[in-house]
Amino acid sequence: MIFVVGIGFFSLCFLMTSLGGQFSAKRLGDSPFTIRTEVLGGMESRGVLRKISDMLEVILKRMDSLSKLDNTSTTDARRLDELSSAINRSPPGFQPAGLVERIQAIAQNVSNMAIRVEQILQNSVVQGRGTVQCEVPRDPHYPECPGKVDVSWMRARWTSDPCYAFYGVDGSDCSFLIYLSEVEWFCPPLAWRNHSSPPTQHTQPAKAPKRQAAFRTDLTVLLDQVGTGKESLSFMKRRIRRLAQQWATAANRLDAKLEQRWRDQKKILVHVGFLTEESGDVFSPKVLKGGPLGEMVQWADILTALHVLGHNMKISMSVKELQGFLGVPPGRGSCPLTGPLPFDLIYTDYHGLQQMKQHMGLSLKKHKCHIRVIDTFGTEPAYNHEEYATLHGYRTNWGYWNLNARQYMTMFPHTPDNSFMGFVSEELNETEKRSIQQNKVNNMAVVYGKEASMWKQGKEGFLQILHRYMEVHGTVYYETQRPPEVPAFVKNHGLLPQHELQQLLRKAKLFIGFGFPYEGPAPLEAIANGCIFLQPKFHPPHSSLNHEFFRGKPTSREVSSQHPYAEQYIGKPHVMTVDYNNSLEFDTAIREIMRTKVKPYLPYEYTCEGMLERVHAYIQHQGSAGGSRTPGPLFVPLPNSTALGWSSSVTAPTAWPPLSSLRLLVSQEDQSCVEACQSAGFVCEPAHFRIINNKEALRGLEVQCDVMDSEINHVLPAFSVVRQECGLQREPLLFSCAGHSPKYRRLCPCRDFRRGQVALCRDCL
Fold first, then answer.
1. What is the mean pLDDT of the chain?
2. Distant-in-sequence, close-in-space partners of 705: CB < 8 Å, separation ≥ 6
3. Residues 583 and 465: beta-carbon distance below 8 Å
């Protein structure tokens, strides 16, 4: 009962501090109040009075518990009650003369009372427990405890955030120790405390019985959850409705494929940070003006996939909703959550991650393994490790979160260190495909570029060549007048609704890119509707080292064309990548396209079923690892291959992907494991680095090691042929498929993959 006092009167202190400087409080010694005042008037004073009135009500309730300790509390309560009533009756424009002086007197009495309460706490005998001990413990298991209680930390900052008062901190040593042992985890539990208090970070919640996830085909609840009030949300809901039948069909197919096996239902929070007002939300106002839609496409599909898979999902589109779902204490984010994390998984983006850092305090570090970050262009391990990035020049505005790199989830499978989340494109049935092939207009081209700025400078040459062979169509946004950047020979339809754009693509033979935007969903939609996609080749490849768009992004990935996935995973005849600066090459490509007939094509991994399959596998299996192995040689040569595999005679530790998928290879000097695995027909699997980061792997590959060392370096494990030096990785967060060095050949953990589903190995389901 005693600690509740501090909550009330220090809330008043924080209220005064927060009112823009009209009231300020500074603690002198152990007294929290020395108050200076300025006279307010008009509407400004009215707002202040309302806040004071609300706070007085809180103080009155909490002072009631002091009524038996000191007669002054009863008197003060009566005076506060009178003040509160007077404020509520005061007319507009009321000048609060003398009000602050009266509050000051009450506050001083309450402050004196707090000092006496602290003396009671530290000197009284607690019934049945002996004397309360508030001395700072010296426990080797809690080495940081003395420093946290010391004047240099807890004493200096406990008034800086109202969350400390929310947890009962009132400036006394006892309150510091209780907070640091029960809310945070820097001090040992106090033996004399009653540990039936509300749950905090130390509380291990009783494990709820597992519930089975059941596929859902009705999207009504999801549409209600998405909400209203923004054009971005309206766009996402239209997309969800349009694809509803395809999601339902995909759910039934996957259910049959999984043979109705048990799937754990997870509690999932989805916080769409980039659409919150707090992040600036520059996307919503541009939805109907030709702005980028790729992120909204992906988020709509993520929400639908999680819902259809049957998980218990909450959706947050504001910081206030985020705080409520997580149980964030009132204040400025210095304190942990009020209880255990109420979710198994949290899907967010970089904006949301920053907001969580601001409001979760230490809890973010404690619970970061539950977070999944939707990250369009990818985050490589060297940029993700904060200390390493800072020391070695990889620090950017977006990386440095010290997550497992697989917690970042990309739009395309371009960064094997991350997980490929993706999105979906509409799938056509056989009747629709035949109709499209029969009705294609052989000399019709549609330009990929909704904003007039994309048509500026440097486009005239190849557009003139295109115009010699084809009728050129555009979908450029405009309000009243045709954009002057668009050549007169282009038939501009303006910004089209999705279904009208789809009809245009079903007629067109060619969908042509200008080089920007990078890696969007539109080329896949065009290919799915029977178009050939023509795009520019980049010489040299664009990257964060040479191109403004990628500068500051946490990746060194080199982008060889506008849409590398289309170039590498789809290719001819559906995709042609040429040098637009070479007129002859461009001309030849157009004539070849006009001669070529293609069927509508959509990679399985971008169908609704493909995305459900992938997301299901991540949720049920990602992060599972452990177990032991029996002695014996770990790696053995595979037939007809230069790679090594896991020995069948050795019991494999628990792993996902399973070790049956492992293919151990050696890269060339200055070759990344991404490239080494691709050249052998595999993909790099970062989860397997822990399996090959050992002497057994080097011996299996017959590597000569005169020197063996363990270091922190994102190209390890690796070896130098010239110096016969071998290095193992000491920091698991720096296991990197992307790293390469001219000095080293790398040990590369490759794996096989399912046809049409590069994210999953053959045995991954």
1. 85
2. 695, 698, 719, 724, 725, 726
3. yes
pLDDT of residue 642: 87
Q: Return all residues near 572 (Cβ < 8 A) that are at least 6 apart.
A: none
Q: Are strands 508-513 and 441-448 parallel, antiparallel or unpaired?
A: parallel
Phi-psi region of 100 (alpha: psi -120 to 50; beta: other; left: phi over 0): alpha
515 contact partners, CB below 8 Å, separation of at least 6: 535, 536, 538, 562, 580
Helices (H) and strands (E) in the chain, counts: 27, 27
Is residue 702 within 8 A of residue 637, CB to CB? The reply is: no
Pick from 40-54, 667-681, 697-711: least confident: 40-54
**Percent of the chain residues topping a pLDDT of 90:** 67
Model-level pTM greater than 0.85? no
368-377 residue pLDDT tens: 999 999 999 9
**In 243-349, alpha helices (H):** 244-257, 294-308, 319-326
Residue 68: is its pLDDT beyond 50?
no
Query: Distance between CA 572 and CA 646 in Å, rounded?
Result: 36
Nearest Cα neighbor of 285 from 236, 238, 239, 231 is 231
Nearest Cα residue to 662 out of 699, 692, 632, 707: 692
Helix axis angle for 244-257 and 231-242, nearest 10°, is 60
CB under 8 Å, gap of 24 or more: what pairs does 77-84 form?
79/106, 80/56, 80/106, 83/56, 84/53, 84/56, 84/57, 84/60
What pLDDT is stored for residue 544 in this prediction?
A: 93
What are the pLDDT digits (tens) for 378-394? 999 999 999 999 999 99
User: What is the rounded CA–CA span in Å between residue 404 and residue 153?
Assistant: 31
- C-alpha separations of 254 from 260, 443, 507, 566, 617 in Å: 9, 40, 32, 26, 11
Structure tokens at 450: 């909704």
Task: Say which residues have a Cβ less than 8 Å from residue 14's Cβ, sequence separation at least 6.
Answer: 159, 162, 165
Confirm if 733 and 384 have CB atoms less than 8 A apart.
Answer: yes
Statement: residue 200 has pLDDT above 80: no
- Stretch among 6-20, 185-199, 599-613 having the lowest mean pLDDT: 6-20
d(CA 349, CA 373): 5
The CA distance from 40 to 500, in Å, is 60
Query: Minimal CA–CA distance to 361: which of 387, 315, 327?
Result: 327
Q: Output the six-digit token pair for 138.
A: 């010296």
Helix axes 99-123, 42-63, angle to 10 degrees: 30
pLDDT at 45 over 50: no
The mean pLDDT value for 399-403 works out to 93
Contact 382, 525 (CB under 8 A): no
Q: For the range 381-384, what are the long-range contacts, defined as Cβ-Cβ under 8 Å and sequence gap of 24 or more?
A: 381/405, 381/417, 381/686, 381/714, 381/733, 381/734, 381/735, 381/736, 381/738, 381/739, 382/556, 382/714, 382/734, 382/736, 382/738, 382/739, 383/554, 383/555, 384/408, 384/554, 384/733
Within 10 angstroms of residue 23's Cβ, the number of other Cβ atoms is: 22
More confident call, 641 vs 580: 580
